[in-house]
TrEMBL record, chain A:
<dbReference type="InterPro" id="IPR003439">
    <property type="entry name" value="ABC_transporter-like_ATP-bd"/>
</dbReference>
<dbReference type="InterPro" id="IPR003593">
    <property type="entry name" value="AAA+_ATPase"/>
</dbReference>
<keyword id="KW-0067">ATP-binding</keyword>
<dbReference type="InterPro" id="IPR017871">
    <property type="entry name" value="ABC_transporter-like_CS"/>
</dbReference>
<feature type="domain" description="ABC transporter">
    <location>
        <begin position="4"/>
        <end position="201"/>
    </location>
</feature>
<keyword id="KW-0547">Nucleotide-binding</keyword>
<dbReference type="GO" id="GO:0005524">
    <property type="term" value="F:ATP binding"/>
</dbReference>
<dbReference type="InterPro" id="IPR027417">
    <property type="entry name" value="P-loop_NTPase"/>
</dbReference>
<dbReference type="Pfam" id="PF00005">
    <property type="entry name" value="ABC_tran"/>
</dbReference>
From TrEMBL, chain B:
<comment type="similarity">
    <text>Belongs to the UPF0014 family.</text>
</comment>
<protein>
    <submittedName>
        <fullName>ABC transporter permease</fullName>
    </submittedName>
</protein>
<feature type="transmembrane region" description="Helical">
    <location>
        <begin position="6"/>
        <end position="24"/>
    </location>
</feature>
<feature type="transmembrane region" description="Helical">
    <location>
        <begin position="191"/>
        <end position="213"/>
    </location>
</feature>
<keyword id="KW-0812">Transmembrane</keyword>
<feature type="transmembrane region" description="Helical">
    <location>
        <begin position="225"/>
        <end position="251"/>
    </location>
</feature>
<dbReference type="Pfam" id="PF03649">
    <property type="entry name" value="UPF0014"/>
</dbReference>
<feature type="transmembrane region" description="Helical">
    <location>
        <begin position="128"/>
        <end position="148"/>
    </location>
</feature>
<keyword id="KW-1133">Transmembrane helix</keyword>
Length: 201, 265
């Protein structure tokens, strides 16, 4: 599996961002709201015009079609959108183990998306993304709508999976506690730059 | 043709009905009187002018003048398409897309119908070419503007859905497929409805006009069927071309959704 590299990315207020994320490594990003965390993820996912480039292993962002890049480097937005009627239609393949690990059941696939709570949407958006077998993940506060217990449950499922599949992960997170649990490295956005913060004291 | 001659004073009589209606709405404080009168005056003036133009055109009958007339009609309908958009593409793209798709569909269907079906001599005889083109352009314009309006509106409203689908690695065409389908449906619904209701609920305007002008109903019906089919084809192809091109233009070469290319009309 390949690592994810950001080279001289410039988007919004952010300038000249360099970052290497190794396979299986989680790099946490934090910063005040409006500092450009989401836009940085969107730039890496190539969803908006930006300076610089990103690389997954030997493949450069601009060298393949947009959808091919995003088929490898998948972003999970803070607020997920749903377009089919049922949950199952959004999954590329049945994900019984993932659903069970997150406190759902086989029946969940037949649930109507209009009745999902924000917490359910957030967890199912992650399952939906992983059902398409990405090779790198960009997560925008994936536990923002979850309580403490559910958050821990999600981490217990996701972390081993990231390690097993050796996915490079950029994870936008808020809480210092969570960052200490997850991160290989942690960067705080300060103005136009990323400032590395110690993860464990 | 044995049309009963209609004199101008008889039209004045008909116009008094509109004036009476305007007076009623004025006294009922509906605030419609003024625009009703302006619209009625526009109808009279515009149609009188086009009557003069058509008389002259029919008298000359040369291909140049027919073509010039056709192009003028096309450009005006292109402007009309843009005027009906809530959001339009920046940089004249809406006008270009609307005009080109109407040109491709309405003009080719008109020429095809003239050459292969009606077969007048010469084939561009303005007596057939201009009314047919006018009817096709009018209807294609409605289809194109409804289709484009629906597409751009859903791109803005459903931006989250489209972008989330892109994030999951879908192509731009897949990510907006539902909205393209909706836009096509919106553009084609009027003609599908009027084909389905023709003769049962409504007597189409052209057929009514022909019968009033003295044509035998059987002939009027045949022409109406012809016109309905050509309108359906023209509207369908025109809307398809416009919606497909506009959808492509909503995404850039990296398949990103670019709602910043839209501006409030």
């Amino acid at each position: 599996m390949a690592g994810l590299t950001l080279e001289r990315i410039a988007v919004g207020a952010l300038k000249d961002i360099h970052l290497d994320v190794a396979p299986g490594e989680i790099v946490c990003l934090s910063g005040p709201s409006g500092s450009g965390k989401s836009r940085l993820l969107r730039a890496v996912s190539d969803l908006e015009p930006h300076g610089g480039t990103a690389r997954l292993g030997g493949v450069e962002q601009g060298a393949v079609a947009g959808h091919r890049w995003r088929r490898s480097v998948m972003m999970v937005p803070a607020e997920s959108a749903w377009w089919f009627d049922s949950v199952g239609e959004h999954l590329h393949k049945p994900m019984p183990e993932a659903l069970e690990a997150l406190g759902f059941s086989d029946e969940t696939a037949s649930w109507s998306v209009s009745r999902l709570s924000s917490g359910e949407k957030q967890r199912l958006a992650l399952v939906r993304t992983l059902s398409r077998e990405p090779r790198a993940l960009l997560l925008d506060e994936p536990t923002a709508n979850l309580d403490e217990t559910t958050t821990r449950r999600l981490e217990d499922w996701l972390l081993p999976l990231i390690r097993k599949r050796r996915l490079p992960v950029l994870w936008v997170a808020h809480g210092g506690e969570q960052i200490r649990r997850l991160a290989g490295r942690h960067f705080r956005i300060e103005g136009a730059r990323l400032v590395e913060e110690p993860v464990r004291t | 043709m044995n049309a009963i001659e209609l004199s101008w004073w008889q039209l004045v009589l008909a116009s008094s009905l509109v004036v009476a209606l305007a007076a009623c709405t004025h006294f009922a404080r509906l605030g419609l009187g003024r625009s009703l009168l302006v619209a009625a005056a526009r109808t009279a003036i515009q149609l009188a002018l086009i009557g003069l133009v058509l008389e002259a055109l029919f008298a000359v009958g040369s291909l140049h003048w027919v073509a010039l007339m056709g192009i003028a009609m096309l450009l005006l309908s292109g402007r009309e398409v843009v005027a009906r958009q809530k959001y339009r593409l920046r940089g004249g793209w809406s006008f270009a897309i609307g005009t080109v798709s109407m040109f491709i569909s309405a003009f080719s269907v008109t020429v095809l119908t003239l050459l292969a079906v009606i077969d007048p001599h010469p084939w561009y005889d303005p007596r057939y070419a201009i009314p047919l083109l006018g009817m096709l352009l009018g209807n294609t314009m409605t289809g194109v503007s409804l289709g484009l309006d629906r597409l751009t509106e859903s791109a803005r409203r459903s931006r989250d859905i489209i972008e989330n689908r892109l994030m999951l690695g879908e192509t731009w065409a897949d990510a907006c497929s539902d909205f393209r389908r909706e836009a096509m449906r919106a553009g084609l619904m009027p003609i599908i409805n009027s084909m389905a209701a023709a003769g049962i609920v409504s007597l189409p305007g052209m057929m009514t006009g022909q019968i009033l002008a003295g044509s035998p109903p059987a002939l009027a019906v045949k022409y109406q069927i012809l016109v309905m089919f050509t309108i359906a084809a023209g509207t369908g192809f025109g809307t398809f071309a416009a919606v497909a091109t506009c959808a492509r233009r909503l995404f850039d070469d990296r398949e990103r959704l670019r709602v910043d290319r839209l501006t409030a009309g």
